[in-house]
Amino acid sequence: MSKRARFIAGVIGLGALCGSPAVAQVLKMDYQNNLMSGSLRSGAIEVNAQQKRRINEEGSNVLQPVAVVRVNGIEVGRLVGAEKLGGWPAAVVQIAEMDPGNPYPEVLLSSFTGGMHCCNQIQVLTSDRSGEIWREVTLGPFDGGDSPAEDPLRNGHFLVVDVDNRFLYRFDGYAFSRAPARFWELQGDAFVDVSHRPDFKPIHRRNLQRMADWFQQKRPGSQNGFLAGYVANKALVGELYDGWDRMIQRYDTSSTWGLQECKGNTDDNGKCLGREIVYSSFPEALRAFLIDTGYIKPSGEQ
After folding, report:
1. Which residues have C-beta within 8 Å of that of residue 34, sequence separation ≥ 6?
2. 100, 121, 101: which is closest to 165 by C-alpha?
3. Which residues contact 80 (CB under 8 A, 6 or more apart)?
4. How does pLDDT run across 136-180, given as a tens digit for each residue?
5. Geometric angle at alpha carbon 266, from 262 and 272, rounded to 5°
6. Contacts of 169 (CB under 8 A, 6+ apart)
7. Is the pLDDT at 22 greater than 60, yes or no?
8. Which of 84-109 are b and which e, b meaning 16 or more Cβ less than 10 Å from the residue's Cβ?
9. pLDDT-derived band of residue 268, with 50, 70 and 90 as boundaries?
10. Rounded CA separation 169/118 (Å)
11. pLDDT in tens, 53-77
12. Torsion sign (Cα): 9, 207, 281, 288
């Protein structure tokens, strides 16, 4: 699987979905590019980055990306990415405007942890409104590999763009799961999910257009993992009830995937330590899931 991919079969490529991003300084470090170190500069900000090799506490030989950030020659912070054991170490360093409320653009480090479908670890160094105090803000991990922030609305405001990872494996296996796009905006010292804003409706509609072919298939295979993402997408564009009706007509009544849920932690053997819920049907489980994830209200409304 490509490290940038979010799905395997039937993927919606978010880069194409969002359009061409605005210009930002980006450095990609990996063996494939034969580039293990480099630097970026934007105005007063300079970033020097490299993949550092070390022996970690477990005694493993690992590579780990480190980005040192300076403003007017003075170090204001450094980002230390994920350790990578073997394989192709990969990381992206970027200078991009992610929070217009401070005087400097942000520095993002996205690094790949390795493993099947996993993981993209995102770290951002950002200043306060005075520009004097810098802090690190983290997000993820996400399915897939290293990736820069994107400018989905092409207005010079960069966001972290992904798919909603909560849908993966929730009602079916990875290959049959679908999920709506998710947009994270940096606000001060935290990332905020802004996927439900009206500005993103055209993107969600394009996502739905790419899903439309599924309904033309006579034997689409596994269904519930797809339908969960489809209904959520419909809710994002204000068409929840239409999406719900189509789901009712097509869902797999024989599948029990996702009908059991543990409200709490599990032990090392997977036993639920909290309250365990067993749903009677996929629509019942989906309704509860979409309420928990904020796609519909507890009343069942949009």
Report:
1. none
2. 121
3. 64, 65, 66, 123
4. 999 989 998 889 999 999 999 999 999 999 999 999 999 999 999
5. 50
6. 177
7. no
8. beeeebbbbbbbbbbbeebebbbbbb
9. confident
10. 13
11. 888 888 988 889 999 999 999 999 9
12. positive
Q: Scanning the structure block, which residue is given the tokens 């394989």?
A: 87
d(CA 22, CA 156): 6
Mean pLDDT score, 95-117: 91
Average pLDDT over residues 105-116: 89
Token pair of 119, please? 């993981």
Enumerate the H helices of the chain as residue ranges: 14-18, 201-211, 224-236, 240-250, 282-292
Cβ atoms 135, 126 nearer than 8 A: yes
What pLDDT score does 34 carry? 64
User: If you search the block for the tokens 């330590």, which residue do you land on?
Assistant: 273
SS3 of residue 294 by DSSP: coil
Which residues have CB under 8 Å from 60's CB, separation 6+? 83, 85
Residue indicated by tokens 């490299």: 50
- Residue 160: phi, psi to the nearest 5? -85, 125
